[in-house]
Amino acid sequence: MKKRIEQIAKKFLETVHDKDIIILSHYDTDGITSAAIMIKTLRRLDKKFFVKIVKNLEESIISNLPKDKVVIFLDLGSNSLGYIEQSSLEDVFIIDHHQIIQQIPKNVNIINPELHGKEKISTSGLTYLFCKELLPESKDLAKLAIVGMIGDVLEKNISRLNKQILEEGEIITKRGPLIYPSTRPLNRVLEFNSNPYIPGITGNPKGVLNFLREAGICSENGKYPSLMELDEQEMSKITTGIMLRSPKIKNGSDIIGDIFLIKLFNKLEDAREISAMINACGRLGEPHIAIQLCLEIPDAKKKSESLYVKYKRLIISGLEIASKIEKIEGKSFVIINAKSSILDTLVGTIASILSNSPFYEDGTMIITMAYAGNKIKVSARGVGKQGRNVRAVLNEVVEKIGGEVGGHEFAAGCLIDKSKEQLFIEEIQKSLEIELVKI
Q1: Residues 17 and 75 both lie in one domain
Q2: What confidence tens digit (pLDDT) does each residue in 75-111 have?
Q3: The Cα angle at residue 144 between residues 143 and 148, in degrees rounded to 5
Q4: Is residue 352 located within the same domain as residue 295?
Q5: Which of 318, 340, 373 is the last residue before a domain boundary?
Q6: How many C-beta neighbours within 10 Å does residue 300 have?
Q7: Is 163 domain-assigned?
Q8: Tally of domains in the chain
Q9: What are the E-state strand segments in 132-200?
Q10: 185 and 304, same structural domain?
Q11: Which site in 73, 146, 204, 236 is 20 to 30 Å from 22, CA atoms measured?
């Protein structure tokens, strides 16, 4: 992988010598941190560039790109190789970590661990390593790679390359329950915590206060301590209390892990919270604020915090709506068609939260749907990261009815035409039921 990054970085420097650059990146945490790392690096190299953050890489976006510029796709592109090949773009670079199911076109220079050892690393991690080859004095950007890693939930099993990035970024790590932010008052943290979803506590202020009272955690002058301010005994009580209320959590390793603290705006921040704030900005249509946050531009922190509060409220509301919607259920799958009642940018988060909740057994496939203009956004998750290959199931259906697919084995999504709504539901049911018969 390292050698591949070196080769592509060298070719990139040769190619951009006298050309402008277009950066297209995904709107989630990994995509936005990748874009921020690239922006800072290209600025230091005094290169001209344009940045566009997108929800989905549709064929029309690719076909409208100028042919004479260097195009670099971040956290995108691996699922759009056919469109890129047809586009006649002269110089294309892809840094991505999603599954590849197509041949690599000749006009594409790609860095993707799926082609080289399948090491678990985020696009932001790959982008950091790539940019460090372009400009060795880029180690200050390692913290953004770690935020992106957390955004893609890769922090529980740190890979070799991620260990290297952690060391270079001088990240502070501590062990504790994986609820965030670890630097904020516990009562607010528990109320808005959704991963893990804690029955009777998540979204329930009274339940939170009862929980803290039972754990012996008291407020001082009306303010509760943060997780980082608790002693070992208090940490243990919080962990035990969460486990007792969450049937999905089987042992301590499910809830205890590394808490990562990074320095942002000259203050120690919980990297999980920064990751969630970036994600909130992107999903609420304000990715430029998320990039400003990553670049530590004054005023970006307050704006992103405000969007994050709004996002958390929308998620809690979305979970309530999802609980009331009439569902299509079969053996080991559930389809939640929110139509226009939940934002299309939130259904992936809703699916992820439900997949970590106590409501569904391991191996269940959760499929959420929401209208996105004249399209439908579909997000699917495999509970417990077990059972059928989510990406493969969606791909099989989309090959029949049309659309675009992307993602991983147990977390994937697709975009289909709104006119295909009922057909998609019928085909996904058929596909899942047939696969069950095969099993």
Answers
A1: yes
A2: 998 888 888 988 889 899 999 998 887 889 888 999 9
A3: 120
A4: no
A5: 318
A6: 20
A7: no
A8: 3
A9: 172-177
A10: yes
A11: 146
- The model's pTM is 0.83
Q: CB–CB of 168/139 below 8 Å?
A: yes
**What are the angstrom distances between the C-alpha of 108 and each of 49, 72, 89, 298?**
19, 10, 9, 37
Rg from Cα positions in the chain: 22
- Do 404 and 422 contact (CB within 8 A), yes or no? no
- Reading the block at residue 43, the tokens are 């600025």
The C-alpha torsion from 202 through 203 and 205 to 208, rounded to 10°, is: 0
Whether residues 179 and 152 fall in one domain: no
CA-to-CA distance for 74 and 77, rounded, in angstroms? 7
Both 49 and 124 in one domain: the answer is yes
DSSP-derived secondary structure for 348-371? HHHHHHHHTSTTS-TTPEEEEEEE
In the listed set 156, 182, 197, which residue is the last one of a domain according to the structure? 156
7 and 146 part of one domain: yes
Among 46, 25, 7, 26, CA closest to 130: 7
Closest of 383, 192, 385 to residue 280, by C-alpha: 192
pLDDT tens-digit readout, 288-314 = 999 999 999 989 999 999 999 999 889
Kindly report the backbone phi and psi dihedral angles of residue 193, in degrees, each rounded to the nearest multiple of 5, phi listed first: -70, 135
28 SS3 class:
coil
Using an 8 Å Cβ cutoff, are 229 and 270 in contact? no
Q: What is the pLDDT of residue 429?
A: 92
- The token pair at 157 is 């099993």
| Orientation of helix 205-214 relative to helix 232-245, angle to 10° | 130
Give the residue numbers spanning the domain of 346. 326-438
Q: 152 and 182 share a domain?
A: no
Which parts of the chain have pLDDT scores under 50?
436-439
CATH number at residue 433: 3.10.310.40
Q: pLDDT at position 178, please? A: 82
**Same structural domain for residues 208 and 263?**
yes
Which residues are CB-neighbours of 353 under 8 A, at least 6 positions away? 194, 195, 197, 315, 319
Q: Is residue 164 part of a domain?
A: no
Q: Residue 335 belongs to what H/E stretch?
A: strand 333-337
